[in-house]
Structure formats: C-alpha cells, structure tokens
Amino acid sequence: MNDDTRKAYLELISGRKTGVLAVAARTALRIASVPYALVATLRSAAFDMGMITTERVDRPVISIGNLTTGGTGKTPMVEYVARYLREKGLRVAILSRGYGSDPEGGSNDEALMLDANLPDVPHLQGADRSALARVAIEELETEAIVLDDGHQHRRLGRDLNVVLIDATNPFGHGWPLPAGLLREPLRTGLKRADVVVLTRSDLVSADTREAIRSKVARFAPAGFVWCEGIHRPIEAIDFDGTVHEPGWLAGKEVALFCGLGNPDAFRATVEQLGALVRDVRWFPDHHRYSQNDIAELSRWVAASGAQLALTTQKDSVKLPVESLGGRHLLALRIGMVFVSGEKDFQRILDATVCPRPND
C-alpha cells in the first residue's frame, strides 16, 4: 500500500472522510469485518481447546505482540527485553517472521537494527517459529526466547504474553480488519495478555490513558500487569559516524522520511525534540529503498530547503548513502523507556525465566 492509498484508507476507516460514498464504503468494510472477526475468534477458540496443536519447548518463551496492524513500538520493546535478559547473564535468541526480508534471503530491517544494537543476541527469522525455537535451543544453547510479533502466532507456546497498545490509536478505530486495524477482536486478544504496555503514553492526556486502561481491564485477565512507556530518542547518528545527543536536533530544519506502521508518531517525537520539520515523505512499513527511491529522495530533500535529512534507525540500515540532496543523512535511534510499571514488568520477567521450584 503506497502512502496516498494508506492515507485514504485511514481517513476512511477513522471516519474523517465524509459523504455518501465514504459512508457506503465504511459500511461495506464493516460487513467484511464480520467474517474476519468470526474466523479469528474460532481460530483462537481452537487453540484454547487444543484442537490446534501448540508446541512447547523446554525454554521460557516471551512473546511481544500487539492487537492492531501498524507500529506500536514492538522492536524497541523486543530490544528492551532481550537486553534485560542478556544483562542477567542468559543466552537469549530473538525469533521473528521476517516480514519485509530481502527476497534473496537477507534479514529485514528490524533484524538488521537489532543486530546493530544487540550484537551478541542471535536473531532467527522464518515462518515456522517452532522450528526456529528448536534451532535456537539445540544449536545456539539458548536459555530464553523472545518472540517478536508473536501474539497471533500461537503454534509456538509461550510462557509470557506481552501486548503493546499504542496510546495514539489504542483499539484500531474499534473494528477488526478491514473496517479497522484490529487483528482480532479485543475480547479474544486481550484475554491472553499477561502484561499490557501502553506505548507512546506521553502523546495523550492522563484522562485518555486511564480510559484506555479501564477498557483493557474489561477484557484482560484479573491480575494482568499494566505498564506505561514512551519511545525516547537515544541518539542521532550521522552517517559519517558522528553521534549526537537527541537535543542537538532542536532548531534544525529537517526533511523527515521513514517506512513505519505509524509514521505520524515518529514525526511527533521529532517535533518534541524541537526540530523544524520542513517536509515529510512516508513509505510503506518495511519498505526496501531502491536506487530510484534514493534518487527521488535526493531531489526531494534538495527541494525541501531543509538543513538535514532525518529518518529512523530502522530505515537507515537499508540506505547505503551518507547524504541526500547534498544534506547530511541522520538516523534517530529510539529506545523503550517505562514511566510506570517497570519494576512489576521486570519482576514478571524474572519469574518467567527463573521460576521458583514450587512454581
């Protein structure tokens, strides 16, 4: 889905697009959501009743996932969990489906970024994550597995389900696909959540955060752990190797581009740093930049009048250039920071990977 199509789709399902044709289109999408939701519910029930087999492995599996399509900040959370466990002295492996991987067998952007930030944590990608888990255990002597984007992937059993909810669009406009962004109905997805983390919590009010929490509590299990976090810029990395504090961007005029599931949140983060966004260019999530893309971006950056070109670290690993349109190209590295619930989250992580003898 290109940027124009994505914008039109989001305007439609959010209700911002009005008129008779828009109403008719939303009605058609909602009708189509009914069988989608039914299939998702029946599939979940089949797993719950053992009608579809779940494979367990003899190492703790921690799933990081979400309920909606698009970006909720899973990769920074995967990095947080893997780093936390690694610092405990455990051998950790990350497993993921590998969406957007190089057709010739190369890793996708998220894997490349995690490899750069966690060089001592192997990242295995493939459709059969049960097989990947066996490889991690048998060949890499893995002691703990982090399952990236694993909430709907239930064939591999897990010991802890961490569900991320984006505060800026927590429930995917209230409808399952295609009328909304929910991958499965809220009741179905949240009942499996052991931990719910509200990401980008700084972008909404305290009343909104409490309203989201109250709605989650209607469907999540009793005793679920609630946390709130933000995506904090860690550093701005110049492609000539120079590393800047995030505040260095304040007052800088930037041409902003990325291929993310939620690019508007990236823009909000950059603007909070005080950067002056002169123009934006959004690409589909996991976009692989071609030489034509790079040439077009160079023309666009030059025409924007910006001092710098700025993208995400996730995008930067796919860009073999140091500048665009005669301007330095920088990547903003983002990390997950908890503003509440971190101690509870760490406690449940510890209990998952190092259970007491009577657990």
CATH class of the largest domain: Alpha Beta
Order of helices and strands: HHEHEHEHEEHEHEEEHEHEHEEH
How helix-rich are the residues, as a percent range? Answer: 25-40%
Uncertain stretches: none
Which fold name corresponds to the CATH topology of the largest domain? Rossmann fold
End-to-end separation in angstroms reads 47 Å
What proportion strand?
15-25%
Using only C-alpha atoms, the radius of gyration works out to 21 Å
Q: How would a textbook summarize the main sheet?
A: 13 strands, mixed
How many domains, as an integer? 3
Characteristic key phrases:
359 residues, alpha/beta, Rossmann fold, 3 domains
What does this structure look like?
The protein is α/β, with parallel strands linked by helices and 359 residues long. The chain folds into three domains: 3-48; 61-230 and 337-353, Rossmann fold (3-Layer(aba) Sandwich), CATH 3.40.50.300; 232-336, Rossmann fold (3-Layer(aba) Sandwich), CATH 3.40.50. 38% of the residues lie in helices and 23% in strands. It contains eleven helices and 13 strands. It has helices at 3-14, 20-48, 74-87, 109-117, 129-140, 186-190, 206-219, 263-272, 291-304, 313-316, 342-353, and strands at 61-66, 92-96, 123-125, 144-148, 160-166, 195-199, 225-238, 243-244, 253-258, 276-282, 308-312, 323-324, 327-340. Strands 1, 2, 3, 4, 5, 6, 7, 8, 9, 10, 11, 12 and 13 form a 13-stranded mixed beta sheet that branches. Strand 5, helix 6 and strand 6 (195-199) form a beta-alpha-beta unit. It is globular and about 60 Å long.
